[in-house]
Amino acid sequence: MEIAAIVVLLILSGIFSATETAYTSLSVIDQKMFESKRSKSAKLAWKFSKNCDLVLTTVLICNNLTNITLSALVTSMTISKWGNGYVGLATGILTIVLLTFGEITPKQIALHNGRGIALAMAIPLEVLTILLFPFIWLFRNLSKFINFLFKNSDGKKLTTESLIHLTDAAEDEGVVDQYEKGLMHRAIHFSETQAKTIMTHRTEVFCLKDTITLNEAFPKMVESGFSRVPLYHGSQENITGVLLLKDLLKAQVGHTGNIKVTKLSKTPHFVPEQMHIDDLFFQFKHQKMNMAIVLDEYGGFSGVITMEDVVEQLFGEIYDEHEAHQGELITEKCHEEGVFIVQAETPLQMLADKFEFTISDDDEESDSTVAGYLLNQTGDIPHTGEIIDTRFGLFKVLSMTKNRMDTLEYRPGNPQEEE
Q: In 157-280, where do the E strands start and end?
């Protein structure tokens, strides 16, 4: 009878140890899976996974009561059968058995089968929390008071950085390939990117005066290769409309090309530089637009942004049949390993994703291009051949157009977080 009781207590000790490890090792994804299921055990498991201190208090009370009872029972049985001289030996054997079958082995099993054990123990845990409520309330409040004295941040909080590490781990495990991992990284940062980071700057925007006729605009627009062109009145600071090539072609077919371009122009849609592209994508989609005029903080014309610019942030560069292929924004330099050619308009976040360094969400650099970041670092316009040392590595200016950087040589360093 005593042997049977010892075996039962040893099994219970193992179950409580496995339950503790199962719930503490659950990931956010496991919690979401429990939440999505309709079974009672899944709902209870989700509740306990969101309230780990309740699980720990309940399990530890039960486990300690079990182990104390087990130790007392073994001691009593040893004294009654063999005398006091064998208590030390029995205690040593019990310690080894308890560590092996009541602690280490159950916890190792729980690490690999945590989800199943959490589901199986959800209902028994619910019963135990009700039966042991007074003790659980006492120990939880005592523990909360002690934790308050040593309060620290929640290390299990899901962050953007942890999501990126999760996708990296998924690639290592073969769950996703390199392209899918890159797509996930871009999707994670999609809502953080601002319009000013990916817009076409005003110095590169092809515009037409709103005083010319359709016949005058037609050859210029065809030569430019653009299907949508902003119209301005007086100066480019004053954008008054957007002319569509489709409307222009209809006018040419209908022989009405002698009218002013303003007769066919569409009302421009203005957005601030600071608008995040996920919000812009929503506007494009629901207002059936493909181009927006970007304004700076003073209301001046800053550039244009299109639906294609936004989509390319997820899927990479998209070229049509007549668009010149400009190459990748970041390419490794031929015959020189570990050195890269970077286009100056590359978003800094893209560089961070590729070379795995971290930009703080509160950092003003997070929405900048590489060129903008370097200008902020130097405080001056660099010259061709200048080397700029940053916390992300060394940049060398390879080419410039007037006062604008075009191409850079990049040598990754050992980036460190901003202090």
A: 200-201, 208-209, 228-232, 239-244, 270-272
